Amino acid sequence: MEQESDIQDELKSRGPLPEHIAVIMDGNGRWAKERGMARVLGHKEGVHAVRDVTEACAELGISYLTLYTFSTENWNRPAAEINALMHLLIKALKREASTFHKNRIRLQTIGDIDQLPVPCQRELTDLMADTSKYDGMTLILALSYSGRWDISQALRSIGSRIESGVLSADDVNEEVIARSMSGEAYPDPDLLIRTGGEKRIS
Ligand code: IPE
Ligand code: IPE
Ligand code: MG
User: Fold this and answer.
1) Catalytic hit among 6, 9, 26, 112
2) What tens digit of pLDDT does each residue of 95-111 get?
3) In angstroms, rounded to a whole number, what is the distance separating the alpha carbons of residues 38 and 45?
């Protein structure tokens, strides 16, 4: 691993590293298609890429890594693909538990987790509980997440606080909104990477 630590020293010597990196994981299907493989095999390879990126970030001392893994819009995909993705997620969480422990990575999620199949939710809840005390990197998996979903849930929460009288409509400001968004516990990302070659946010 001497080569790897050389790369890390080189990166560190270039100046401050981002505190929070976010990755929109895209292009799995195209990657597979270019190789004459089924889309699902692209997703499987994607899991390996995620493991490598996660370990590299943890070793470099990145504090927060957000992975946009499955979007609200992804529910519109064929059932077989959704099913395969959910199974991959469960398998990856089971198999990579040791990666979390070895690197003291804390797992968190953002998104409409209740929409995920129950076995996925269970796997996530267990690993989050097992890693909640870790002080290494925080890995945030965005699942059943989209910016529009996040704004909706923030507005619902603000609305219900107004309804119950703990908040007045006049008090709604940028800070109240920011604190109601699901990333409120983390600093804003410093670097956003979209894999797959397209230059846009989802
Ligand atoms: C990203 O790759 C994986 C998920 C959305 C879960 P895609 O499946 O979007 O692959 P492309 O963009 O079709 O190549
Ligand atoms: C987005 O890929 C990556 C996510 C997992 C969120 P998609 O191909 O699903 O999304 P678009 O192309 O940005 O709509
Ligand atoms: Mg895509």
Assistant:
1) 26
2) 999 999 999 999 999 99
3) 11
